[in-house]
Amino acid sequence: MTTETRWIGARVPKLDAPAKATGQVRYLSDLSLPGMLHGKIRRSDRPHARIVTIDIGQALAVPGVHAVLTARDIDNVAFGHGNDNNAFKNDIVRCIRDEIAAVAAETEEAAERACRAIQVTYEDLPAIFDPREALQPGAPVLYAEHPDNRPFTYSYGHGSIEQGEAESAFVVDNEFELTWVNHCCMGVSAILASFDAEGRLTLHSQTQVPFLYRRDMAAIVGMDPADIRVIQPTIGGAFGSKLDIYPFEPIAVHLARATRRPVRIVFSRQEEFRASPTRQPAIVTLRTGCDRQGRLTFRDAHVLLDNGGHTSWGATIPFVMMQTVSSLYRVPHVRFACDVVYTNNPYSGSFRGYGNLQATFAVEQQVDMLAERCGLDPLEIRRLNAQHSGEETGQGLVFSTCGLKDCLDSVARQSDWAQARSNREAGAKLRRGVGVAGLLHVGGGAKIYRSDGCGSILSIDDFGKATLVTGSSDIGQGSETVLAQIVAEVLGIDIARVRVINDDTDVKPWDVGVHASRTSYVAGNSALMAARQARDKLLGAAARSFQVPLEELSLRDGSVMRGSERLTALDRLVRSLHFSERAELLVTQAYFEPASVKQDSEFRGNVSPTYAFAAQVAEVEVELDTGVVRVVRVSAAHDVGKVLNALGLEGQIEGGIVMGMGYALSEELKIVQGMVLNPSFRDYHIPTAPEVPEIRVEFIETLDPTGPFGAKGVGEAPAICLAAAIANAVYHATGVRFTRLPLTPERVLEGLIAAGLVADLGASPCQA
Amino acid sequence: MPVKLSFTLNGRPVSAEVEPTMALLELLRERFDLTGAKLGCGEGECGACAVLLDEEAVLGCLTPAFAVDGRTVRTVEGLSSSEGLSALQQAFVSEGAIQCGFCTPGMEIAAASLLRQEPRPTPEQIRRGLEGNLCRCTGYVAMIEAVEAVNDD
Question: How crowded is the C-beta side of A233, counted as CA atoms within 13 Å?
């Protein structure tokens, strides 16, 4: 059955785009309050050391300084997923970014000058920078509670690896190494904290999870969560970086409390590179087997995660990595083990894809290796092993809809796969290659808390304007536009008559936050429930008032319609309810809780109500003389359930693809002895406009039975599998397999030389 | 020693007294409350601070404030008029070139500067024209299409 929709599936520009296009929108760094002070943080310049003395005398003497705080001045509550972080470090610093003191002053310059004037003396401690060394006997210990430097381990399995091995005709075994990557949000980290006369705290914050944030912040700064209001101004990009609380945030609160003035902290770009969470570096050891026909038999993975000096969400990415290992394609026997180890490197947080880029890089290269071993085309082996709708995987993930095969067929068509695979030579100095990778990701949240729900309040005023107050947040991805489309569709009104409020915890109902590609699905379903209730109320009122059967009525073009007859305008109907004896306002509320489950202690269970699938084909050129890899074209097909906003969806997919290309080719925090050596856009290269390949995108609509209008989440998916597709394409072009990212010219050239494709001239280009 | 300067800002004459070390971006944001141009890196690498100086894009974070004396400055706030969004801004909206929007002002300034020099740029010229402006959300595709759409009009 197809029903005609006016707003669902349309190309609707982001609702706040005009305000952004004209520069009217205020981001956190554009906000100020009367009497506001500027906060700056003094950080450790040692990776592992005991703090012997902190002298703040000279800092206090800097004109304009209102407060200088250290661990001694506050109740320094531990926080974070590992309960191993503090606003200020008490006695030991465990990575170079660690916070030691902070200043609030009338100008940023004064705050900076005072920060520099703080005298810290250290006693250096032996440090660890290699996660493998952290596990060696006798290695320096970061936390006495964890004498093996291993705060978290994960272990999952289904089937029997021994049986899987016995059933295998071919087995591949590799080690893959992934490095640190920075989110590079264009808007740097910032916060503005202010107390009112009665001691209530207002935080202008960039958080993606305002309600969890409020609870956690309350515990850290010793307040009642009810006394904390979180306002989320327009956020200059997040991509997962704002999913946790980081020390600068309670520091701002402590400074505001100490000075009784509003305090704003805004990072410098260098600070953003050095002191914000990263994508997790990982060493993935993977074995995959298949039988003679190419059917996958087993996967056996071990992951070593460098946790850095403290714990943020980076330590929890094995949840997602194991899903890809266990359930991307049919795999009867799986074992996954992960050690998360402390080092004195910077620590990692959550980042779009949440471990899946790392896992997919390994898993999808081995699929290609096995295809070659058993003489199958890379697309063929994937089609052979891809699941159908309705299948449940060994881990208990239930694929209510699964468009993976359709995605593979689509990219084959879009890329003219067979032709592209047969055309590798492009002259003596240039090779062409084409590679594919698929992906699996949650498509409707992940039930890692007791609730993964979202609340909505919808009101329609006397003038026919609908206001949706949603618990969800927008971090630039366009969720507010999708929610407005859903409301406009159900109520039969123009989208210009829908306003979405999503930025204030004093107003909006609860929501987990922006993560796990959940907002379109969870907040979308919640908005849909509220809108349907409003529609039912309106139609019920019209049926009573016009004495017509309810089932003959509908809402269209701002009116109540009986067939093609216009009975009354929506605003008129709302007023007639309001100013009648019923004295009723049109307000509805809904709370949507997805039908997912928390996984058991063995990580089994259907953690998301639906799953996203995709395939991407990368066509590359490799310059043999220089090792430069250029991505010429990317063909992508994404199972999105149902297109809600075609314009927004294209933007998410294109943006994710280019982010994935940066991960594949150039992005790498160079960290030596715990120090980030390239904390600037000059030395840390994210893709720029001239490097963007031709991108083709096709949406696969599988109409998920539980999604709003059939939709599933797609926010993270586009970034996940391109690195694997590019590595497979580079192999196709050159016959050289690269298992470390990024594929910089130096690394590729080294590989080409080692393989004998290029003569070794004795010195790398950098040394010449 | 403060420097006195007079210049045209978004079509109106203004004057200011600045320290010689002050950057144009700080002058615009702090003194004139024009917060459209952003501080993205402070090192001239990201382009978020771009403004038009005599109708040519410059980096607000690296241009000294005193350098605008006697000249004309236009910021993103000055691209639109009382009639509404400029054709370029409208194209950015319609083509989906705006997500988080933090880079948008600088990107539009770079595009406006390009279109002034080259009213009908090729896709390659557009890519080159936007090269100095970083965006982490969109993958640039919709931005390139937006500039092309203005070109088509």
Answer: 23
